[in-house]
Amino acid sequence: MCLHTLADALEAGATQGITSNNHLAYMQLALAQAKQSPPKDSNFRVGAVLVDAESNTILTTGYTLELPGNTHAEQVCLIKYAKAHDVPEERVSEVLPTNTVIYTTIEPCAKRLSGKLPCVERILRTRKVDGEGGIRKVYVGMKEPEKFIKEGELKSGRMKLEDAGIECVAVPGLESEIMDVATTGHQ
Ligand code: HJL
Ligand code: ZN
C-alpha cells in the first residue's frame, strides 16, 4: 500500500480503502501522522487515528503537538472530533459512535510530567455515564519507552485501560520505526 496516496486520500475526504481487519494498515496511517509531529526533546512524536469500527470509517487523526497547548496525539483526535460536533472535549462521549476504536503508535499515557490529564483518563471519559459507547478498544503500536516515566513507578497506560474494561490490542511489526520517529530530536 502506498501511504502517501492513502494519506492524501484521507486528506481529501475520499474513501479510505482499508479493510476493517487490517490493523497494520491503520497503524501505518497512525505512524504517518506521527511523522508530521515537530521534534521536541520533552516528549515523544506519536500519531493516532480514531475509527468507527462499526462502519469502518476514519473519524479523525492526530499527532503530538498538532494543536496548541502541549497536546498528545490521542488528545488531538478527541479535541478535533469534539470540535467538529460542537462539543468540548470533556463531552465527546455524547457524540462518539458506540463502537469507536483508536490506533496509537505508542500506548496512551498514564501520567504526564507536565501534570496535564493523561490520555488514559481522556479515553475513559469517552464512555457514556452507563459505561457504554465511546472508545471500546485501543490498538497499540508499542509500549511507552522508558524515558519520562520509569517502568514500575506506576501502572502502564495499557494496564490502566484494561483494568477499566477497555481492551488493548498490540499491533506488531512497526516497533523500531515507531521508536525512531518517536525519539527524533531527542538528545
Ligand atoms: C502518547 C503522545 C505523547 C506521549 N504519549 N501516548 N502520546 N507525547 O502524543 C508520553 C510522555 C509524556 C511526558 C511529558 N508521551 O507531554 O510520557 O509534557 O510526553 O505532558 O511525560 O509530559 P507532557
Ligand atoms: Zn497522552
Helix content: 25-40%
Question: What small molecules are bound in this structure?
Answer: ligand HJL, zinc ion
Global morphology: globular
Percentage of residues in strands: 15-25%
Please work out how many helical segments DSSP would assign.
6
Low-confidence stretches: 11-15
Main pleated-sheet profile:
5 strands, mixed
Output mean pLDDT: 91
Name the strands of the widest sheet in spatial order.
2-1-3-4-5
Rg for CA atoms: 15 Å
- Note the quaternary state here: single chain
Protein name: Cytidine deaminase-like protein
Domain CMP/dCMP-type deaminase: 21-151
Organism: Delitschia confertaspora ATCC 74209
GO molecular function: catalytic activity
Characterize the structure shown.
- The protein is of the alpha/beta class and 187 residues long.
- It has helices spanning 3-11, 23-34, 73-84, 119-124, 157-163, 175-183; strands at 47-52, 57-63, 100-106, 135-142, 167-170.
- The chain has a five-stranded mixed sheet, sandwiched between helices.
- The chain is globular, with a radius of gyration of 15 Å.
- The structure holds ligand HJL and zinc ion (ZN).
- Zinc ion binds at residues 72, 74, 108-109, 118-119.
Question: In a few lines, what is going on in this structure?
Answer:
GO terms for molecular function: catalytic activity. InterPro entries: CMP_dCMP_dom, Cytidine_deaminase-like. With 187 residues, the protein is of the alpha/beta class.
